[in-house]
Queue: 3 jobs
Job 1
Amino acid sequence: MKHVFMEDVFYDSVTVGERGQVVIPAQARKDLGIKPGEKLIVLRAMGKMGIVLIHTKHMAHIFDKMTRHMDTIKKLLSQRS
């Protein structure tokens, strides 16, 4: 059941099985182009509130953006000290 206020991000709830497995909802797999056998990266999100799955094919793009903006990131981090 989709919630109107989160219809762009919320697909459904899932249950963690005994072996720690979850099933990604079919519509999410379809919308995100996730096919059987493909690899996803699992990241902790918002402290310990949840996890984020990122398709490995997007990791190079993420690292490229981070590398291109490294000077800006360093400046932002140094301002926090």
Note: The two ends are 45 Å apart (CA to CA).
Job 2
Amino acid sequence: MNSGADLRWIPPLHLAGAWQMAIDAWLLDRAVSLTSRAPGGGAMLRFYTWSRPTLSLGFHQRLHEPRWLALRRSGELALVRRPSGGRAVLHAQELTYSLIWPQAPFRRQQAYRRTCAWLQAGFASLGLPLEFGTDPAGISQASCFATSTAADLVEAGGGKRIGSAQLWRRGVLLQHGSILIAPPPDLWRRCLDEEPPLLAPLPCSREELIRHLQGAAREQLPLASGAWRPQPLQAPEWSAIAARLGRYQLA
């Protein structure tokens, strides 16, 4: 992170997927605007959950799977578009994180490694060490969790615990990702036509995991002379975010 910059900590939010994606995108644009006036402005970290099982598609991914539409028609699944790239992610019994880093390392792999160090430290302290995936990027799969690339974190047994995606804008990085907790096997199979990753059970609740990872982030994402600022979204911010909802809703 950048010397002298504050990091905004937004308390966890439990909302529909279009709201969560609009929040991330708006916070990225806000950071771009702030950084243009004061280098390092707009750094942010938050965790969030989804109000119902939701499949998020990468920004350029086509909505081409008939089973996704069938699950939406049955009311079992919501569909949203992410502002970032990548492949489909099923958000059900998981935790999503979002990090905004002004003036992040320009090389993508270096940025992933530095932005994932706190996740590795947090899970290692829980007795669940994670390593980066080794699959080559660009494999044609509809599901994000079907492969494990250098952007992903996997357990010793090979199960993919965390899948992340990035969006860069004028030197500011938005990285958000899905942290699997206990993916529902039946919905996972019907949605993604594959088995969910085999993962060790977490030794804590979701709320405890958030506190644990927040502590790891404070250790691994230090702001040399800045501070962590707990600050919920304010009414004018909610209004600006609401104006973006249509960009991420999939009709």
Note: The CA atoms of residues 6 and 76 lie 40 Å apart.
Job 3
Amino acid sequence: MNNNPIGVFDSGIGGINVLKSLVKKFPNEDFIYVADTLNCPYGTKSKEEIKNLVDRVSNYLINKKCKAIVIACNTATANANHLFELDDIAVLGVILPTANEALKNSKKVAVLATDATINSGIYQEVLLNAKKEVYPVKCSLFVEPIEKGECGTKENYELVSKHLNHLKDKNIDTVILGCTHFALISNEVKKVFPKANLINSGEPTSEELYKILEKRNLLSSNKKGKVYLKTTFAANALMNQIKIFNLKYEYIEKIII
């Protein structure tokens, strides 16, 4: 058993979709969530910039004695191969659990992700190796409206529809929401692909983390876990942004990484 916290991070609020799944799966665990809002979005940055930010946030969580780190950001996951090789801490990204979930009962898969994630080719490789028909779409332009709280607006429905319209006649049966922010625009995406199965990162990532912690004997013996939120921008701003999640947490703190 190990009662140290689990670290979770994203470039902004999208990773809270994953955090909520983790809290549900691990009610006895403490979580430290870092929203690197100051540097959001990651998806339009260079590989070098993303890797540097990933290292800085990860080092912060390691210094907080986290027993595991969940990279709740597809773009960061695609630029964190060096972290997955660490032996003294469990590090899990969202891409492989999400991609593997999408392999079930699918033939034609649309991958909606940031430019950087699509450019990495990781989703495409997993799906093509499984003989799936893959349609990757660079969707970095969806992130800013989500961070601004514009989900569900007429303008956002139009933005999503216009950007994905070229896939309407492809008989897509599965859509990977390959950016954790995109769970917040599920309704907009569903309007374009009403018959498709939408795959979010939260549940498959939670299931994979459980296997890892159980195997390493790192599950907590706490009776009830707590959630601590950190932001690299402003605590009040994050407080307002996350109201839509109805997440219970202890406090929000601004940090410097």
Note: The mean pLDDT is 96.
